[in-house]
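Quick one, tokens below. Sequence please?
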């Protein structure tokens, strides 16, 4: 490594382990690219467990590109996706659960997602899974002892075994439940803003974003396509807001009919794909056929309804049916109304149940599948005991549960599995 880097850098002083040293970075012709810093991490006290040299250069794109080009010319290669974390896993520096938490942390786009990933990176998930694994091992040891030495070791009481198995299953179920509820916080929620033309959808879109992103006009049909932006809702939830064209029946003979019909088709597609519909109705006038149609269409959808333009009247709000009894009355121009709508969206997305991001969090669908497999095996064992069948029949189920937890932590990871996992990482990390 020293001879390799000697072709790229010149030290101004002898380097020491884990101490930043001033260096000059040179290109292949010996010309200076930058004056930067080098930090050497000798094995095994590095992130990957190998000798690692970090170069810190100034933030100019030209300097970064020049440094990279010099390193490649000297014989280096670009790291693959997640290669450093994969090396750390193979060196035993992190387990697979922690590696996936690193990937989730790097990919997090907002604070709540980062908090959830950090909880896994701190080892909380690994400890929880290892504790469950140890509890299963204790049950297996107790059963093995009673089977091998029946005259000396009393078999565990069936009811006690059943209670312990059910308690373990409940712990794994809680992990999966947190995963399901936490997905909204980690990944965000897609919110389609739908309604009849000129209901104030774009004004509400801008108000939730706190910026003028969509064009607003009193002329119906101004929005002809979907617009997407991300807004933060209370509780740190990222909402992907989708402003859509007004939904109505268009006469083919109208000017611009084909363009508007294409926009309406995209509105319907956005409504189908979104997790939550934000239905906007003009409250200032009696309910129009178009508004009634949108309300009818979204009744089986997870939705928040706003009767907008309350500053101009509430006729439509007073006409609403019992199906819209939970609707909000307000105005996209009123900050307090916008705040109420944001809270309602957050509560609807979470179904009123905010996950505790300080608790251990499963970091991927792969981990959730492994936890589910372990939970199912424990459920089979509990059913066997509840029927009064011999306790030794649950040994296979307990072993299957332990194997699933091993898979969760990556103890039996195949190369194909590692390739799939680390392929989702950013380059290098």
């Amino acid at each position: 490594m020293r001879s390799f880097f000697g072709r790229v850098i010149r030290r101004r002083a002898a380097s020491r382990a884990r101490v930043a040293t001033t260096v000059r970075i040179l290109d292949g012709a010996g010309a200076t690219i930058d004056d930067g810093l080098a930090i050497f991490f000798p094995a095994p006290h590095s992130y990957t467990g190998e000798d690692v040299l970090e170069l810190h250069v100034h933030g100019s794109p030209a300097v970064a590109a020049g440094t990279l080009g010099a390193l490649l010319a000297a014989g280096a290669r670009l790291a693959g996706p997640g290669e450093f974390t994969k090396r750390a896993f193979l060196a035993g520096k992190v387990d697979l659960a922690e590696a996936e938490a690193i990937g989730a942390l790097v990919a997090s786009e907002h604070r709540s997602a980062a908090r959830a990933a950090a909880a896994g990176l701190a080892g909380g998930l690994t400890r929880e899974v290892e504790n469950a694994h140890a509890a299963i091992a204790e049950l297996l040891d107790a059963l093995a002892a009673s089977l091998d030495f029946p005259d000396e070791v009393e078999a565990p009481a069936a009811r006690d075994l059943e209670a312990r198995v059910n308690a373990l299953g409940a712990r794994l179920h809680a992990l999966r439940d947190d995963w399901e509820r936490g997905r909204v916080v980690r990944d965000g929620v897609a919110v389609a803003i739908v309604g009849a033309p000129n209901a104030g959808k774009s004004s509400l879109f801008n108000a939730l974003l706190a910026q003028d992103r969509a064009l607003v006009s009193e002329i119906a049909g101004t929005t002809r396509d979907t617009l997407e932006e991300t807004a933060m809702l209370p509780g740190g939830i990222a909402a992907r807001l989708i402003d859509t064209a007004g939904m109505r029946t268009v006469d083919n003979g109208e000017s611009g009919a084909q363009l508007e019909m294409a926009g309406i088709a995209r509105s319907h597609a956005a409504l189908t794909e979104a997790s939550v519909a934000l239905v906007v109705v003009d409250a200032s006038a009696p309910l129009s056929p178009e508004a009634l149609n949108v309300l009818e269409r979204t009744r089986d959808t997870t939705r928040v309804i706003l009767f907008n333009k309350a500053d101009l009247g509430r006729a439509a709000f007073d006409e609403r049916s019992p199906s819209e009894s939970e609707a909000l009355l307000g105005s996209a121009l009123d900050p307090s109304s916008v705040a109420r709508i944001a809270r309602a969206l957050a509560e609807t997305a979470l179904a009123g149940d905010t996950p505790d991001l300080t608790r251990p969090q499963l970091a991927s669908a792969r981990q959730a599948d492994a936890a589910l497999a372990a939970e199912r095996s424990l459920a089979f064992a509990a059913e066997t005991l509840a029927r009064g069948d011999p306790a030794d029949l649950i040994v296979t189920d307990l072993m299957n549960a332990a194997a699933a937890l091993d898979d969760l932590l990556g103890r039996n990871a195949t190369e194909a599995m590692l390739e799939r996992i680390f392929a989702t990482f950013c380059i290098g990390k």
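The longest strand covers residues 32-41. Residues 219-224 have pLDDT under 50 and may be disordered.
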